[in-house]
Structure formats: structure tokens, C-alpha cells
Amino acid sequence: MAELSLEDGTLWYDTHGDGSPLVFVHGGWQNGRAWGPQVDRFESTHQPVTLDVRGHGNTGATDTDEYSINLFTDDLEELLDHLGLEAPVLCGLSLGSMVVQNYLDRHPDRAAGAILGGAVRSMPPVELPMGTKSFLSPMPALSASLSMTGPEATFRSMLTSIQATTGQQWLSVDSEVRSMAMDAVSEVDDDEYRKIFDALYQFDPPELTHVETPTLVVHGDQEAPPVKRQARAIASEVDDGAWLELADSGHLVNQDRPAAFNEAMTQFLERRVWD
User: Fold this and answer.
1) For the chain, what is the mean pLDDT?
2) How many other CB atoms are found less than 10 A from the CB of residue 23?
3) Among 31, 48, 140, 117, which residue's Cα sits nearest to residue 88?
4) Which positions fall inside the AB hydrolase-1 domain (predicted)?
């Protein structure tokens, strides 16, 4: 992996292959390795770029006290400038989909395309009454859980709550994928976990009606229903959007169904981006 110096830390990233750039932004409490199936598939024909977002993976902690999707987007912009990538296809999963949406809002025609897996617009993925979100913040309970049980147990508790509500595995239908996801969570320390969660919770999703970038939104059939609704809304809001549901897959749709996800990417790139 390579390093990019930031004002308050170091961003770790990796590049593979050569050709048209595909830039991958992972989900919350995961890391760039989550895109392994896509890197393996496209490194012979494209230039896949993965990064570990602040607080995650090799990048780990940075000196800033609070994180935000805006800050993560600033880092993405800095990485693209550093690598000289002017018209990449941006691929975001979950938290990464928020970062990509934010980038598209800032630069509605600068990316060649966007592919969003497990796309979500807010946490929680439902509209709360105006002015109530700050009063309903789960941060006190989250901080208590982190101090008592740590990130991995806190994450498992969140999964249990979602599964009890939806009746679905949600995160992943594959036990090996779930195990890899938990390994990634275990690499995140308590304070970074809190800062990442707060970035997700505080995100105010932009309207995307002005976005001209061809966009594909992909979710699994076992995804939480509110997230599915948000995913469809994203696809319908952008000027050139499409959405796809893959069977036998959950939130980590690119890992649950890697071959099908890669094929969807291939068709999208050929027909909508570089046709």
C-alpha cells in the first residue's frame, strides 16, 4: 500500500493494474480489502484504486476530534488530485456510497460514472421529524456500549437489533463474509468507532437531481427494506440512474454475490460509461 500525507494524519491507499480508473470506497468499520473480488476482476482491464477511510484499516486514527462525510469526501478529492485521476468511476459501499453521493453533489459531471452498493442516504435510513434527530441521538448509549464491551460487541449488538426488526441476515447471507467483516471491525478502536458512527448519523444527504453522472445502484434482496427504498430513490433522483437487486445477498452485496456484482459492473461500464 501507499501513503498520502494529510494535515492531521496519513491516508493509506492501493492501486492495481492500468487503464481507466475505478475508485472504491468501503463501508463503515470495514477497509479497502472489502473490494477484493472487484480488484481481482478488473485489475487486468482497468486501474482499481482502494483506500482505507479515516478511522479504518491501515489509515486508522487521525488527529481530528470529529469525522464527517464531508471530511471523508475532502480526503477522496485529495487522493484523486494526488493520483491525477480526472474522470474516474467511483464505487461506494454503504458509508462509501454516502461519500460518493457527496462527491457527485459537489461535482455533478466530473466522474465518469458511479456504482453504489448497499446504498444508503441516512442513518437511520428513515426520515425523522424535523428538528428531532439531535434529541434522538444514540451516541450516549453507543459510547456506553463501547466503553463496556468494545467495537466488535457493539457492532454485533447493532446487527442483532437490525435482524430482529427485519427478520433477515441483512449484513451478509454468507458466514465467511460476515466473519471477514467482523475481523475488520475488530481493527477499529473505541474512539474511532464513535467518530465513524457520528459521521454516519450526522450526514445530511444532498439532493442529486442536478447530477449528470451515470449511476448504478445495487442492493441485495436481503437488504433492510428502508435501505432498499433509499437506494431506489437515489437511482430515480439522478439524471441517468439505474438500480438492480441481486438475489441471495445482503448489505455487503459485492462480496455475497461477487460474480453477479462484477457482471453488473461490466455491463454498466460498457453500456453507460464508456460505450
Assistant:
1) 93
2) 26
3) 48
4) 22-264
Which pLDDT belongs to residue 126?
76
Q: Would you list the domain boundaries of the chain? A: 2-273
Contact 61, 55 (CB under 8 A): yes
Q: Is the N-terminal amide bond of 124 cis, ω within 30° of 0? A: yes
The bridge status of strand 113-117 relative to strand 89-93 is: parallel
Q: What's the angle, vertex CA 23, arms to CA 53 and CA 251, rounded to 5?
A: 70
188-198: per-residue pLDDT in tens?
999 999 999 99
Per-residue model confidence as pLDDT tens digits over 55-73: 999 999 999 999 999 999 9
Closest CA to 38 of 111, 107, 83, 89: 89
Distance of CA 191 to the CA centre of its chain: 20
pTM score above 0.85: yes
What is the fold of 2-273? Rossmann fold (3.40.50)
